[in-house]
Predict the 3D structure of the following.
Amino acid sequence: MMKRLRRLSFYPVLLVVYAILLVPVIVVIATSFTVQSSPTLPTNGVTLEWYNTLFQNFRLRNAMVVSVIVATATAILSGIIGTITAFGFVRSDIRAKETLATVMLLPLMISPVITGVAFLRFSSHLSIPRGLPRIVIAHSVLALPFVFLIVRSRLLTFDERLEDASMALGANKWETTVNVTIPIIGPALLAGMLMGFVISFGEFTATQFLITPQTTTVPIIIFNQIQTGLSPEVSALATTLVAVMIIVSVIGDRLG
Amino acid sequence: MLFVESLNFGGGDLFANYRDALSGVYLETLGRTLYYALITTVVCLVLGYTIAYFIAFKAKRQFAMLALVLLPLWIAIIIRYFGVSLFFLPTGPVQQLFGTDFGVLFTTRGVVIGLVSALLPFAILPMYNSIQSIDDELIYASEVLGATPLYTLRTVIIPLSLSGVVAAALFVYILAAGSYLAPALLGGPADFMMANVIEQSFTYDLDLAATMSVVFTVTLLILIGLFNHYANISEVLSDL
């Protein structure tokens, strides 16, 4: 009885926390079905009209295509670089490894505004082409720590004797990598890459410095629409984004 | 590498920029940023610890409850802030239910609520990890020896989960301080934080923006350094 009571006393806090975590997303999704012309809860009927207008809007369709291209490219780029760095960290004995690992994680700690500003200056110095290349590289920098952490933790539990065994049985380095190493770290790498995809897909703060009129991503459009005038179309757009992110994360979860 | 880059283009200038960046409005903004981040951290720690404790010791469906904590992490932060603002808008459910929005939107409260909502998972996860790894035997021993639950909590559980608490505080603080979207979407002009001021000044005074970036980053790195004294960041991060 006392135990039960003590459990129950947690419930108000539980309610508050889960409300804080989940209500915002639920509200966004719910308001995308409203019949009114402003994003309200659909209290008198639902409609899919806003999704219809959404997909007829050329600018928005274009932004979605750009977002998917950028996120895919980011996943691949950060996946490759992150894996190579993780291997470097786990397999070698360089000094100051811990310090270097902390440096790897800096993009997590520095405000994305500063990352964005710094990257804009940096990329005009190096004359990296405007538009997609800049956005992809900046997103990769932001996604890198996650890929690095995920792949590294998999590598730490990697039994290197498996590679030795493969070599001892006559496979060369390349065969060992393809047949032994990659299958073992594959799921972690893929999970990291999907994480990179999701990060890139939702990134706004650093991206706002790097876009061009032709290469605008979905979060930028959402932000602009929130600032200029609310229509349930924004909710529909955001809901589409949520759907993509949840699908990708479920796939990632299965793998990781 | 980005840090060095930001130093290069900002640090090469005269000290005049630094005098600007460390005076008046800008210093005020820096103070406000650190203060908002502090409130957010405290709220997140209190709520997060309670939940982490509950999930670790009392919950029947641990997995489902953790999954619900993790779920928002996968959803873009801009969408979650958008949801918060829709919730409190004049046309939103709060207004419909209570007839008032409690003065949340475009005020400090709005910014803090938004930040808490966005960053709670980062507080819950590390604390859950460290509470979870406490040996049940120790708690049992404490109970057998006659300690009340509260005494056990204070002398056994909290000290043993301290590394998780420190990690959680660090995450939330850093992320809250660097936030651009929360003040931009949920706060008024008086609630602007460093990120917003840097973005604004970037368009008209590049050097000032650069200098502020450096000042801000250095301030946070000093704070991280202090934290790092108590808990190793990369160790903590790899737990996630």
